[in-house]
Amino acid sequence: MKILVTGGAGFIGSCVVRQALRDPKLQIVNVDKLTYAGNLASLGEAEKNPNYHFCQIDICDPAALDRVFADHSPDAVMHLAAESHVDRSIDGPEAFMHTNIMGTYQLLEASRRFLATQSQTKASDFRFHHISTDEVYGDLEDPNDYFREDTAYAPSSPYSASKASSDHLVRAWHRTYGLPVLITNCSNNYGPYHFPEKLIPHMILSALAGKPLPVYGDGSQVRDWLYVEDHAEALLTVVRSGKVGETYNIGGHNERRNLQVVEAICDLLEQLRPDKPPGVTAYKELITFVTDRPGHDLRYAIDASKIENELGWRPVETFESGMAKTVAWYLENPAWWQAILSGEYQLQRSGTNLR
């Protein structure tokens, strides 16, 4: 099976690539524009694997997409390429509209053009797997309620609105053109290789530097946390075994308030890095409450019973085990995140051997 992964140099995409390449029966074509959040250093030993091929292109470029499809003839697409940072979407929404909506449209059309040239068997076996977010559902007021696959969409931010739009496009291409699609909506991911602008790595690296740990509002916002390697395994399960036209919610069963997440990071650092920066006596003293962001959703929570019951996937990591692995990884891999903080990782791209 040959899978075209878009955004395979990003956080979740790189994890999918690394996991997929453990299976010698899978071939991966990684399509990534290498925006600021794309980092080839996140792919580990992938470049040395004969089943891996990298193409630096923009998914909004239809001619480039057609070339990739023609050259590699994939059996499936796993579409992860997206602008995904909520704060950035509030400050500059246009990039989110362009990549998340128009990029998805161009990829759908490229897939359709490709399948028109293929045999009936190839076309019927093809899968277009669109990876989305639980943020399309808005937030939950009832503490006993959960997002289900039939929950009505009510996005709150430019980011989630753009992802909701792309979800609707995928469903429309399935119904109108018969494109064999799969959709997954996941809860908040965390783990190794997470870009430092996101909550958990930002808090880890700020604490190590003795900088304030900014928490929006009173930190009462609730998220369901999913370890990225569990998510990658779920995605590969869906692309292999999911039912065409279906949506699967993927969650970690780990609801925590944002303040609890930050406090857990501080507690782990007390154990793993007791030698603190100058002037810091306890990591928790760095916690600082800041003005809440506009339209901040209060609670996300996933009901993942469908993928568990129908496809047999369940998360392996608890919040405690996954968070311990995550903090330890950042402590053990300073070269990766220091290159990002310095900007050096972007300079390294000019010498990359693109195949």
Describe, in plain words, how this protein is organized in 3D.
By secondary structure, the chain is α/β, with parallel strands linked by helices. The protein contains 13 helices and twelve strands. It has helices at residues 11-20, 62-72, 86-91, 94-115, 120-125, 158-177, 199-208, 228-241, 258-272, 305-311, 319-332, 334-342, 344-347; strands at residues 2-6, 27-31, 52-55, 76-79, 127-133, 181-186, 188-190, 213-216, 222-227, 247-250, 255-257, 287-290. The radius of gyration is 20 Å and the shape is globular. It starts with a strand and ends in an 8-residue tail after the last helix.
Quick structural overview:
This protein is of the alpha/beta class and about 350 residues long. The protein has 13 helices and twelve strands. About 40% of the residues lie in helices and about 15% in strands.
CATH superfamily: NAD(P)-binding Rossmann-like Domain
Rough shape? globular
Rounded to an integer in angstroms, the radius of gyration calculated over CA atoms is: 20 Å
CATH topology, by name, is Rossmann fold
Q: What distance lies between the first and last C-alpha atoms, to the nearest angstrom?
A: 19 Å
Largest sheet entry: 7 strands, parallel
Listing every helix as H and every strand as E from the N terminus to the C terminus, the arrangement reads: EHEEHEHHHEHEEHEEHEEHEHHHH
Please give the CATH architecture.
3-Layer(aba) Sandwich
